[in-house]
Amino acid sequence: MKELVFENIVCGYGDTMVLRGVSGRVAPGRVLGVLGRNGVGKTTLLRALAGFLPLAGGQVQWAGRDLRGVAPHRRLAQGIAYAPQEEVVFAELSVQENLWLHLPERQGDRYAALLAQFPRLAERMGQRAGSLSGGERKLLSFTRTLGLRADLSLMDEPTEGVQPENIERMAALLRQRCDEAGAAFIVVEQNLSFLMSVADDVLVLDHGDCVLQGAVSTLAREALEAHLVV
Ligand SMILES: Nc1ncnc2c1ncn2[C@@H]1O[C@H](COP(=O)(O)OP(=O)(O)OP(=O)(O)O)[C@@H](O)[C@H]1O
Ligand SMILES: [Mg+2]
Question: Which domain holds residue 14?
Fold first, then answer.
């Protein structure tokens, strides 16, 4: 079974440790939501899991194998995709080129169902991705990541700047990938409604520590909100 398990992750930049022993797991068909105020280490956690930051402590296992030292592109080949918070698209390439960049062959139907949900994106296939709005670029990044059909996708604030009706469609598509294909996701979000509509479990970070963790069904919205207000 392709489960991701991370234990006591310690990680940071230079001498500054941002994560101070964070643990969690995500099984096939499930969504782990990661919440927390600005600057608490959410992006750092995803970077570490994607292989862009070395661990100072702890370990990450994927399908029972230690991922230590495995480069990001090797992790992608093993079924772990990553949609970063910033620089989500290649601005000089067209929307279409952005979608197909990471795929060895162009199977025509790969994006058809996804683009049917986002007609405005579909209309802009020939445009430079850099001409899209911030929210549209997020949508492009989301579409590309789902199109990779990875076993596990790490998504950093996918709904930032996206229109509400498209956020609902993103939630439906994401759940569909879990429920029909058994895909797993770790989703960092500030949008609590979106997160609660897609996540099975949540992990709340505060200053590099996990301060709350559990199944969404057992956690009150107020308890989660309390960790987000400044
Ligand atoms: N490249 C870097 N070099 C040094 N410090 C960094 C770097 N990137 C992030 N940090 C610091 O690490 C801490 C955690 O940052 P991180 O981006 O993981 O937070 P976040 O929870 O994703 O925040 P946000 O909600 O704003 O996206 C912050 O104090 C930040 O300033
Ligand atoms: Mg972040």
Answer: 4-86+150-226
